[in-house]
Design a protein that fits this description.
The complex is a heterodimer of chains A (10) and B (215).
Chain A (H helix, E strand, L loop, with lengths): L2 H5 L3
Chain B lengths: L2 H24 L7 H14 L10 H23 L17 H13 L6 H15 L2 H10 L7 H24 L6 H32 L3
Helix pairs in contact in B: 1-3, 1-7, 2-3, 2-5, 4-5, 5-8, 6-8, 7-8
Main location (chain B): endoplasmic reticulum
Subcellular location (chain B): Endoplasmic reticulum membrane
Protein name (chain B): ER lumen protein-retaining receptor
Chain lengths: 10, 215
Amino acid sequence: CTELSRHDEL
Amino acid sequence: MNIFRFAGDMTHLCSIIVLLLKIQATKSCAGLSLRTQELYAIVFVSRYLDLFFTFISMYNVIMKLIFISSSFCIIWYMRCHRIVAQTYDREQDTFRVAFLVVPCFMLSLMINHEFSFTEVLWTFSIYLEAVAILPQLVLLQRTFNIDTLTSNYIFLLGAYRALYMLNWIYRYFTERDYSQWIVWTSGTLQTATYCDFFYYYILSWRKNERLSLPS
């Protein structure tokens, strides 16, 4: 998965 | 952002607020594990260090700041508040957090997406969150004290877990390239430790119910 989608959850 | 994810964030936030309000209203934190609360603070700080490096959305920034400050607020009450701090079960809350922190850190060094400072810390926070409730579980098993742990708090915490899992399932089927094994595995373990906690909460609740009934 992309860098962003992994870190957009809290 | 899907509805499960948003509802999950909101119930997570509400669970913390409910806990804080309960402490404020009763001026007591009896039955609450400071060690679990400190672990949550470590989890939030190490995960949200990316506030300084990456911007995702305003929603993310605000929620992260609220999570960090509210968890420190609970710790402040339990450690420093003149009245609340006296109700803390210091002698019973003796779980060695190093037994959780050190293995989680080692694991995050070994199993991660990318060997970088923020990524390892992020992974560490995911692993640590999965087991952070254990000191609270042990305290509950010892004391059967549910004074500060209201059923609202337990319900909201459980709803947060359930909704986040629904969010992952939803995202897996609706987004291309969405899969994250580290989060899924630790998230499932976290839900399992929560269920264990829930079981002891019910047990303690029934025990207290029996004690308060006239014989």
